[in-house]
Amino acid sequence: MRLLAVCALALLWPCLHSQAQSQAAPPTPDPVLKPNPLEALRNFEPAEDEEYRLGKGDEIVIDFPGRAEMQAKLTIGPDGRITLPLAGDLMVSGLTRTEAAHAVSSALEKYYAHLEAQITVSKYTANRVIVLGDVEHPGIVTFDGAPTLLEALTRSGLVTDPKKSPRIPERCAVYRGREQVVWVDLKALVDSGNPLADLRLRRDDVVYVPNGGERFVSVLGEVQHPGAIQLTSSSTLPSVLAEAGGFTEKAGNTPRIQIVDPKNGTSRLISSRDLVNPSKALEVTLHPGEIIFVPQSGFSRATYYLQRLSPLFQLSTLSYLVGNL
């Protein structure tokens, strides 16, 4: 019996020893890795061969090979539609030229046999970006091809230095819709010869160039006018949200506002009820570069929004926030 016990102990000893070690010294957790900011820019940049999609105001020519008399020159209306003889209104905004040509052919096939449409763009009006901030001529810049950051800034007029030479901004922000913003350390990219300095943009992107001493925050999500808001000595969270036009209907009655610091990946949640309490509202200190985000009512897409707010947002922080919503 004793011999059997000794043999059994010998067989079990490696397992018992391993278990004791794991209890005595818990495994070191894997470090949280931050994505490379340059990789974030690459992910933000559209593909070089991305096909152009028609937009409101674009002027197009529709040709029908073998039927020259049917050629039509049309302007896409503010509702994104064109009007075809016989077929009536047709939505083409957001379609590629090939997709739009197929839609035209399909709409007319009941009236014409073996009809094939071809579409070209004679004037790009929808292919535009908006440049704001510290440039000579802020406003809309229209492109015939793919819009790029350096071309948008150059055509908006770079501010000159005392020697009358164009001054490359230290950094700028690019806003895309209500949900995305990326910061570009432009001068460092230009000085290093990195091609991401001339970042490819998308239609309706907004480029914001702060001046050297300007302090600003970004307001995104369900506000009337997403974008950059300058901070002053008297800025408060309610005043910044008011400058952004206030909440949209999709924000609901009592949204919980998220303030994200992209530099370190931290985030704060602020109840909108606290905004009407003067003492609590004043307790919220805003810092330059932070993102103020107003989500849709219900936080049904909280994970999606938070992942898009900052290329440096840590997954551990994201998990914590989503778990506490």
Shape verdict: globular
Q: Mind describing the biggest β-sheet?
A: 5 strands, mixed
Count of β-strands: 15
Strand order of the largest sheet: 7-6-10-8-9
On the 0 to 100 scale, the average pLDDT is 78
- Following the backbone from N to C, one meets helices and strands in this order, namely HHEEEEHEEEHEEHEEEHEEHHEHH
Low-confidence stretches: 1-35, 299-325
Terminus-to-terminus distance: 60 Å
Strand content: 15-25%
Q: Could you estimate the helical fraction of the residues in percent?
A: 25-40%
Radius of gyration, in Å, reads: 28 Å
What is the overall number of helices?
10
Structural class: alpha+beta
Describe this structure in words.
The structure is a single chain. The chain is α+β, with helices and mostly antiparallel strands and about 325 residues long. The longest helix is centred in the first third of the chain and has 23 residues, at about 1-25. The model is unreliable at about 1-35 and about 300-325 (pLDDT under 50). The chain has ten helices and 15 strands. The strands form four sheets. The protein has a five-stranded mixed sheet, with helices on one face. Helix 9 (about 300-310) runs antiparallel to helix 10. The protein has helices at about 1-25, 35-45, 95-110, 150-155, 185-190, 235-245, 270-275, 280, 300-310, 315-325, and strands spanning about 60-65, 70-75, 80-85, 90, 120-125, 130-135, 140, 170-175, 180-185, 205-210, 215-220, 225-230, 255-260, 265-270, 290-295.
